[in-house]
Amino acid sequence: MSATSLLSLFLSQLIETAQARSHRQLVVSERSVTDILVALGEAPVRRVASQDAPDVISWRQTKQWLGQECGHLLVDVDGAFNSEAFCAISGCCRAGSLLILQVAADVATLPLSVRRMLRLLQNTDSVAWISHQGWRAPTLPPLSDVSHLVSQQDAINGLIKVVTGHRRRPLLLTADRGRGKSAAMGIAAAQLALQAPRQIVVTSPTPANVTTLFAHAKQQLGTTDVNGLDVGVEGSRIRFVAPDALLRECPDADLLLVDEAAAIPLPMLSQILRQYSRVAIASTEHGYEGTGRAFTLRLRALLEEEQPQWRSLTLTEPMRWAEGDPVETCLNQLFLLNVAHDVIPPKVEPSADSVLQFKTLSAEHLFHHEQELVTLFSLLMTAHYQTSPNDLALLLDDDSLHIVVARQGELTIGVVVVAEEGGFSTPLSEAVIAGTRRIRGHLLAQSLATHLGYATVLENKLWRIQRIAVAPEWRRHGVASGLLTHLQQQAAKENIACIGTSFGATKDLIHFWQKQGFDPVKLGMKRDQASGCYSLQLIRPVETMTWMKEAVTLFQQSLPLLLMSAHQNLEPDIAATLVAFMPACPLTNAETRQVQGYAAGGVGTEAAIGSLQAWTRWTFQSTSPVEWDWREALLTSKVLQGLCWQTVCARFNLSGKKAAEKALRDYVAFRLDN
């Protein structure tokens, strides 16, 4: 037989085995694309590559395939390889199909992340390997017993029970991607809508997140001629409402479905749980866009505290392939999608003379020390709700990154990842300010430079903290503070002007960063699509410069106006925390008398609003956010953000303006007396 015929026979055997096991098969090929296509013969195959071309799925097009199915895939592995997009498109590959990685000729020139992937693949028995000299057949484990799996029907039954069972018993539905979680929510919503007239509200960070849910709901209802994400049938209605609109408008709902909850801030979810009595929350634990495990742990703690009767269900049965699929197992290993929690060091009491040690790790070091890379990435996953395969690749491939770890003896217990930005020439910096140039990366430096109209920001060198993480057992022991202090010392040695950070704002994060000496300088105008939060930028000078002082002053001047306008829908605890760290002036005698009159009931809220704002800012500055409860949020919503009485009453479950105003007066009186 010819070499082509032998290769064709080998591929046919792989396909036959994959079909018999209802699995996919991963293949690495060093042969040419033509050799593989000829060997596959008439079998339909789709190419995946970096470039846009006819009959080729480009990396940027892969997410458009989510929810669809395809057969064999031939994927280019070159310098432009995209880990996240690869994981996404591999999930569309149905059982019985080959997932062929076509390796570039000169492996030595590939990025470290790609070379690491190929090294691991070469040492994985379940992967077939085709070289120029021959091929290696995979060694596959025995098929597993699948009788214990939790199916999509189990999830549908659990979702229906949220409505038919007791109130205040929310369901947390978790699953790895590809388990039919969103489909189950859509099917359950449709079945409930057909049983009786019901108002079912669906919320998610973006409308795109619920496309699958609504597609299955429409299929169950037997209708396609509907208004996008708003379906009406037999007196029932299933519609999408964005999370911020949900809290602002408070629509009635017999059932609230929250999909892809990992991208919604926990304070917002807490508010949603208080506002609605029948809620199902779904979150992806391991998926192409990252892991939601850290989020799930925090959400479980929140539910335990606020809704102790909550229930949990984890979908385990895959929809497109059988349990034990070797491709899923392999991708989890390659991209650390389900890295075990036990790689994170346990808490041990340090000896009296032991001190934290800090070490900068190079990408080359991590490439050659896999276990250190696994531990480091695990730390990042525990601290950040979404850590994707591309984040793993950047640790190895991005030359602008500085990676510093904190160690207690031999244990790595903390890490900070920093990107160096700025350091540009005056002409280039001025062109960016003028809007005629845009530099790839350098997010914080460019944002602040254009915000302030100050080219010097881009001429200076900045360090932007991308991520900081500490092992759960070691938190609140000064590890993060130690990392930041070490970073400040290193920055001074390397002529860095300031250290900054940008993150989705939450009360706890703001409190942490401001305790570390970082000042807020810019609050985003729109919620970030990934985090569901407003992005907050903060800086801490290494060498104090005029533009840094001006940035802080501008923010402090703008915040009160922003809270009454563009940021009326900012979570009140976040607004209050920002205000608490701003300088405030003592009240004048006139303001004090008016606030006292308000507490006594002699003057209305609107009439005393100026004095109440001054008093609120002064009061928040002298109290700890840790001690706050719903009354501070009520005061913030009405006095600092100027929300209408109707919205305030709905948000805090108050019967009307009279009850809300009484709660405000009682709180002010309490603070005046204490």
From TrEMBL:
InterPro entries: Acyl_CoA_acyltransferase, GNAT_dom, P-loop_NTPase, TcmA/NAT10_helicase, TmcA/NAT10/Kre33, TmcA/NAT10_N, TmcA_C_sf, tRNA_acetyltr_TmcA
One Pfam family named in its UniProt record: TmcA_N
Recorded catalytic activity of this chain's protein: cytidine(34) in elongator tRNA(Met) + acetyl-CoA + ATP + H2O = N(4)-acetylcytidine(34) in elongator tRNA(Met) + ADP + phosphate + CoA + H(+)
Matching SUPFAM superfamilies: Acyl-CoA N-acyltransferases (Nat), P-loop containing nucleoside triphosphate hydrolases
GO molecular function, one term: acyltransferase activity
Keyword terms of this UniProt record: Acyltransferase, ATP-binding, Cytoplasm, Nucleotide-binding, Plasmid, RNA-binding, Transferase, tRNA processing, tRNA-binding
Residues involved in acetyl-CoA binding: I468, A469, V470
Cell compartment(s), UniProt: Cytoplasm
Residue positions binding ATP: Q152, R320
Source organism superkingdom: Bacteria
PROSITE patterns, A to Z: GNAT (PS51186)
Membership in a protein family: Belongs to the TmcA family.
HAMAP family membership: tRNA_acetyltr_TmcA
Function per UniProt: Catalyzes the formation of N(4)-acetylcytidine (ac(4)C) at the wobble position of tRNA(Met), by using acetyl-CoA as an acetyl donor and ATP (or GTP).
Protein's name in the database: tRNA(Met) cytidine acetyltransferase TmcA
Protein's organism: Salinivibrio proteolyticus
